[in-house]
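EI: anyone free to look at a 239-residue chain?
SC: sure, send it
EI:
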Amino acid sequence: MEPAIVVSGLRVVRGGREVLHGLDLDVARGCVTGLLGPSGSGKTTLMRAIVGVQIVREGRVTVLGLPAGAPALRFRVGYQTQAPSVYPDLTVRENLGYFAAVLGVGAAEVARAVATVGLAGLEGQLAARLSGGELARLSLATALLGSPALLVLDEPTVGLDPVLRRDLWDRFRELAADGVTLLVSSHVMDEADRCDDLVLLRDGVVLTTGTPSDLRARTGEQELDAAFLALVDGAGRAG
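SC: here you go
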């Protein structure tokens, strides 16, 4: 089966500095792929390129068989940014209602998204009065509207309590079982262990890919955080 995402020779320059250096990557369909790496490694820039909102210097990004950012992908790709992308002067219900109207989905879809992210009871609350974790959940709910074929989630569980993180990851696994592809960036190692595949970025290049078991076998480390450190340190010595 054709990968959901194919990145070939991707170079991105931001602020006069090259952030991604000829990056190549395939992301399998119907899987949860974790995108990990130190701060500044290029994870958010890569995600922006995949959803088609990043100017690229060179290379090609294909998403669901189409060029990234193609109009036909508008309703097939859900994207949660690292910073909440909602309207502070609207309530939870109004925010979701607005995005639902843009996508052409109904009230049942809004209710499902509210339940998925644990915002039931807060539908009438202004977004400006939500906590940081609640704002992150609202932003995630907007990405879930419309049952997209691909979800690109940039740190979706930052600021959430362990119970809600667990519940969201259970939902991610259910979505993948239904054929949805998820690309999820995270700094939390127990979340990495919930992924089917992992991509480790460092300094704008793909350092390694593989399943959690692959990375453990490759490094001889049982703890994923230790495995990642071993790979990063090894690459640093090689460089």
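EI: The CA atoms of residues 42 and 204 lie 5 Å apart.
SC: 👍
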